Structures are given as C-alpha cells and as structure tokens.
Amino acid sequence: MTDPLVAAVLVGLGGAIGAVSRHAVGLSIDGRESVIVVNALGSFTLGVVLAGPVGTTAVWLVGVGFCGAFTTFSSFAVETVSTAEDGEIGVATAFAVGNLVAALLAIGVGLVVGGVIA
Questions:
Q1: Considering the domain boundaries, does residue 30 fall inside one?
Q2: Could you report the per-residue pLDDT of 73-97, keeping only the tens digit for each?
Q3: DSSP conformational letter for 53
Q4: What is the mean pLDDT of the chain?
Q5: Tell me, what DSSP letter sits at residue 52?
Q6: Spatial distance between the Cα atoms of 12 and 79, rounded to a whole number of angstroms
Q7: What protein family is recorded (predicted)?
Q8: Where in the sequence is the domain holding 21, given as residue range(s)?
Q9: Residue 30 in 3-state DSSP?
Q10: How does pLDDT run across 93-104, given as a tens digit for each residue?
C-alpha cells in the first residue's frame, strides 16, 4: 500500500508530465484529431499499465497521473458540442463514436500487450 502523501506526489508528477505531453500533441496535431490521438494513446497506456506486472507506484504515476492529465474528456466534449453547434451533426456524431471506439480498442490492445488477455 502506498503512503497517501507519496501517492499524491506520484499523481502530481505524472499529471505534470501528462499535461505537458498533451500540450505537445495539441501543438503537433490540430483540433479533433489531437483529441482522438491522446485519448487512444492514453487508453492504450492505461491498458498496458493495468495489465502489466507493475506495482502501485506505476499505477499512481502513469495510470492516474499521466493518463489522467494526458487524456481529455473535456476537450472531447467541447469539440463534439462545438461541431454540432456549427451544424455538422454527422461529423459530431462520427467524432464521438470514433473517439469512443478508438479508446476502447486501444485499451483492449494495451491489455493484450500487457498480458491480461491472451
């Protein structure tokens, strides 16, 4: 069991790295595409961490901290709503469904890579 203070520091450190990484992806890939990329990569990473033989330190640092800050539900929601408000209901729907499918597939692949699913 991890000490609560140590866990908080690990989450904070992972979160800082995740937030900077998310910003870097946003600078490299524009708009909706960056949201799908970070959510899929974050889901994959979380799947690997949860499946692998890692301790609580890695779960706090990478799973909760990094993945929590790197992935972005709020940007997903904003992009979906703003696209719908622009009258692009089909694009907004495809974006929402595509984001969910990509994240679910990525976490599944991460679990396979991590060794939970054979």
A1: yes
A2: 888 999 999 999 999 999 999 999 9
A3: S
A4: 92
A5: S
A6: 26
A7: Belongs to the fluoride channel Fluc/FEX (TC 1.A.43) family.
A8: 4-112
A9: coil
A10: 999 999 999 999
Model pTM?
Answer: 0.85
Token pair belonging to 50? 């949860």
Which residue in this structure is represented by tokens 């992935």? 71
Write phi, then psi, for 38 (nearest 5 degrees). -70, -35
In angstroms, how far is CA 94 from the centroid of its own chain?
A: 19
Q: What is the DSSP letter of 2?
A: -
Flag whether 118 is in a domain.
Answer: no
Query: How many domains does the structure of the chain reveal?
Result: 1
- Polymer length in residues for the chain: 118
Tokens encoding 35: 């949201």
Q: Quick check: is 73 in a domain?
A: yes
pLDDT beyond 60 at 6 = yes
Q: For residue 3, what is the enclosing H or E element?
A: none
Q: Is 72 annotated among the ligand-binding residues? A: no
The pLDDT value recorded for residue 95 is 95
Token pair of 111 as six digits? 């679990």
Quick check: is 117 in a domain? no
CA dist 46 and 56 (Å) reads 13
Is 68 annotated in some ligand binding site? yes
